[in-house]
């Protein structure tokens, strides 16, 4: 986590020490949830090991996977964390996961200590927005085959670690369609 925070070149060593003094280790077993639909997000987790998937239920009550979170990144029901409204998402561990969590109250308290925290949190929010926008554009502009090729090129770890049913949902296609695409690309 320290290395990740240092990459932003915003916080001092003392700032990061303070942050580390506020985090609480947490273990989430495979299949368990970091947060479930209907809860209000009160914490952010830094994933030190493991893999999460974020999903929601469509109006047809089907699970729609829209995000995967790997080690060395933060995980949160971000909209709920900011608004303090109930979340519509579920964040489930696909493997046993280890996290370092920090509460919303602790983050708000950090923001009051100096402007470097505000700069960091603003930059992180901007990065999340850009990531979300790219995902929306990819889903709306590209074919399913192109979305799969994009994964091959940019996130090959998804193809190795994610069960096909979650991967096909993430791509917005059926498992059968995913199998056809994989077969046509390998030929």
Question: Would you give an account of this structure?
Answer:
- The chain is of the alpha+beta class.
- It folds into two domains: 2-125, Jelly Rolls (Sandwich); 142-187.
- 51% of the residues lie in helices and 22% in strands.
- It contains nine helices and eight strands.
- The strands form two sheets. Strands 1-8-3-6 form a four-stranded antiparallel sheet. Strands 2-7-4-5 form a four-stranded antiparallel sheet.
- The longest helix has 27 residues, at 115-141.
- The protein is globular.
- The model has no long low-confidence stretch (mean pLDDT 92).
What is this structure, in a nutshell?
Helices cover 51% and strands 22% of the residues. By secondary structure, it is of the alpha+beta class.
Layout of helices and strands, plus pairs?
Layout: H1 2-6, H2 13-22, E1 24-28, E2 33-35, E3 43-49, E4 52-57, E5 63-69, E6 73-75, H3 78-83, E7 90-93, E8 97-103, H4 104-113, H5 115-141, H6 144-154, H7 156-161, H8 164-171, H9 175-186
Antiparallel strand pairs: 1-8, 2-7, 3-6, 3-8, 4-5, 4-7
Amount of helix: 40-55%
Q: Report the strand count.
A: 8
Q: Under CATH, the topology of the largest domain is which?
A: Jelly Rolls
The CATH architecture of the largest domain: Sandwich
Structural class: alpha+beta
- Largest beta sheet: what is the strand line-up? 1-8-3-6
Percentage of β-strand residues: 15-25%
CATH-defined superfamily of the largest domain: Jelly Rolls
């Amino acid at each position: 986590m320290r290395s990740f925070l240092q990459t932003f070149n915003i916080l001092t060593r003392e700032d990061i020490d303070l942050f580390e003094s506020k985090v609480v280790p947490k273990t989430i077993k495979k299949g368990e949830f970091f947060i479930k639909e209907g809860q209000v997000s009160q914490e952010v987790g830094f994933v030190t090991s493991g893999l999460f998937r974020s999903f929601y239920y469509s109006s047809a009550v089907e699970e729609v996977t829209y995000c995967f979170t790997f080690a060395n990144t933060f995980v949160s029901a971000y909209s709920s964390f900011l608004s303090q409204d109930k979340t519509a998402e579920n964040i489930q561990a696909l493997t046993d996961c280890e996290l370092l969590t920090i509460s919303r109250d602790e983050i708000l308290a950090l923001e009051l200590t100096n402007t470097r925290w505000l700069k960091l949190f603003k930059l992180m929010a901007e990065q999340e927005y850009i990531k979300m926008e790219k995902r929306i554009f990819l889903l709306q502009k590209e074919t399913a085959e192109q979305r799969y090729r994009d994964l091959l090129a940019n996130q090959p770890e998804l193809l190795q670690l994610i069960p096909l049913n979650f991967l096909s949902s993430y791509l917005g296609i059926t498992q059968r369609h995913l199998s056809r695409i994989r077969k046509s690309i390998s030929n």
